[in-house]
## 1
Amino acid sequence: MSSKILKGKKGIILGVLNENSIAWEVAKKCKQEGAKIIISNAPLAVRFGEVKSLAKEIKVPVIGADVTKIEDLELLVDKAVKYFKGPFDFVLHSVAMSNNIRKKHDYTELNYEYMLKTLDVSAVSFHKLLQVCFQKNAIADWGSVVALTYIASKRIFPQYSEMADAKSLLEGISRSFGLHYAAKNKVRINTISQSPVKTTAGGAIAGFDDFWNYSDQMSPLGNASSKDLASFCVTMFSDYTRYITMQNIYHDGGFSSTGLTDKVISTFNE
Ligand SMILES: NC(=O)c1ccc[n+]([C@@H]2O[C@H](COP(=O)([O-])OP(=O)(O)OC[C@H]3O[C@@H](n4cnc5c(N)ncnc54)[C@H](O)[C@@H]3O)[C@@H](O)[C@H]2O)c1
């Protein structure tokens, strides 16, 4: 189903790694809804991963950029402005990485070099990306920027470890930059707090399958899929959400407002 609500819009989707990536669903949906897009990932992921074949499938360009490097982000934004022949309308930041989680370091035994890298890739990069766009006037008036987050920024899920701290920072940057970008170009900046999804990044969390099932049973509507998230991102990029900014919006089937469900309580009677 398509209503072409992004017809005439142009945007960049960062974080397409493989078919399971949330960003891949969003890229496909944006195209389906009539947008012109560029997809991006770290140069190594572009060179050795599936990104190019995915781009070929939906006929969009790929531009490599390490989100921690300002020079890469400047090149990405310059190339995008050239390709779109002017400023673009939306950006998705769908990027996260933690070597402490990958290497199974407990939260009480963090490697701090890894932690700084986690914060840089998963949160500070959002500021870098916004600052580059801001200084280059690269986002059109009333543009929309979205980054993806998880409720562990506010409530503790032990296995989510330092990524919880990265997500808190990411949400803070969204609010802080949202004020400045609204004043300059009416650009809106939001984070979407999504249900768990089985992806490369998600799957790195210890016990992910049990965690996914728990979340599904604690969500009155069940876990939201990445396809549904893609539809919501499209809504956020469209002109139907022009006055939503500096928000963290839950797209989680009701999980964030639920204390207990019959499904979960029944497991204690087994
Ligand atoms: N999967 C979940 O359960 C879930 C839930 C809520 C939020 N999120 C968030 O959604 C976003 C996308 O994650 P995903 O689950 O689709 O996993 P994913 O592994 O497919 O995506 C993460 C992306 O980050 C990219 N990346 C890592 N380091 C980078 C760098 N230096 N420069 C550029 N790109 C880099 C990876 O290549 C990858 O494409 C993340 O922010 C994640 O925290 C995921």
## 2
Amino acid sequence: MVSYYHYVIVALAVISATLLAIFLFSRRRLYLLSYALPGPTTLIPLVGNLGSFFMHRKNVFQFFDRIVAKFPQTFRFWFGPKLIVVSSDPAVLDKISKSAAFEYVDVFDSNQKETDERWRMHKKLIRPLINVKFAIDNIATFQEHGRICTTLLEKHLNNKEFDVHQYLFPCFLDIYGEILCGKVIGCQNGRNRNLIWAMETVLKLRDIERAFRWLHLWSLYKMTDHYKQSNDAREMLSYFIQNVIRKSWQRRKLDVFGENKTGATPLVDRIAEFVENNRKAMRNEEFRDYLLKIYIEASSTSALIASYVCVCFGMYPECQVRAATEIRANLGEDLQNLKYENLYKLKYLEMCILEATRLVPKSCFTIRTFTESVDLGDDVTLPEDCPILIPNYWMNRSESYQKPDHFYPNNFLPENVKWRKSGNESHGSGTHECIGRLLSMVGLKIIISQIVSRYRIEADGKFHDLRIGNPSYPKPSLHGFSLCLRD
Ligand code: HEM
């Protein structure tokens, strides 16, 4: 006998089937795209290739290494219900860098689309503030902290190997703390060590957080230890940066300089001046978020690249000798009173820095999401909101580079750069290009020159022996930036 419950069950089944059909129909363009592109075999759309991602985060890089090698220039994979397209096709990349219609995916922001639009607008105002004069004004600050770092390294002289990043990260936090935030941080002298922890935590967990958001599992993530850690780190950083801004207002009222001994005006005061004159143009929380973003980018990337250059100098001594000779010829033996003109002449060192950024880009992937559908050619359309991953790390190993898996600074000789189709993307391109290109080059040249002119670096192996762990904060996962210092 057919009861009332049977009708209810049938009605529920029909409603569920209809909802599922509507859901699948609304995503039809994703399925068509998935069908048109090669990629790993998927089971069911909701699970996708998620099974392949159950691994320790130290192994994520190796996983991508395998799939990028296996598939052609443009391929897809399903991260749970999220379709992701990976592309290193120059025609696709051209569309990305030229199109204004994309959204920057950043897990720090709640309303990503609006935040991104406003950041791009404000970036036009902030970028000119970090100019050549700003770099020249701050040479003494780089020099002073580089001197402290070189002195601290003394205890490792003719001793066993150690991780140089543990010295360089505090060094750059101190430098950019003064230059950007107008605050003496003192990490190198053992103060504010929780700042190092907070920054590393945020950088380390960035990928995991993005993954949980994509899978709509944020509520689940909130129950994990990771969330607690990253929340503590964010609160700490937010408190720190608010304090920096408050002090800047006070300072400006009293008309005094930042804590920077050189008397150069820190970036925070320059932005504060703009905000004061255009009250409605930038919200207080935007000011806070931008300054934090710039401080994190500046110190973490500079420390990463400086550490890679040092380790590579140890692994490729012939490059170290050439750089040291150039440094001595242009900056003298004692590196006193450094001048911008002399730093500018360090062309070989500049090539070494660019080569390190080629081997290890700031982030192994760049992630972009268009806000409208884009024709990728060959009857393939990328629907809006479908993330596209640009595999920077792997693209930087194309045949247009000589010895692609080695540290080979000659890749950046002018005659070799000239014929390469894509320019130097070490600092990004398009609307999200780095705002610290020039400043970072000046800073890195000073710090590396100080270390190389005082010590001879030794490191085991060659570049490919370093195993990279986390693709969005690419440090060597096995022994860190291990090297020895000799007289
Ligand atoms: C060797 C040092 C550096 C390297 C290799 C580097 C590289 C990069 C790259 C590749 C991007 C683009 C990321 C993307 O396309 O999504 C970027 C963005 C950025 N960089 Fe740098 N950077 C360095 C130093 C600095 C410094 C010193 C500052 C600040 C003074 C800085 C501030 C920024 C900011 C704020 C962004 C975000 C731009 C945006 O989203 O519009 N960077 N950097």
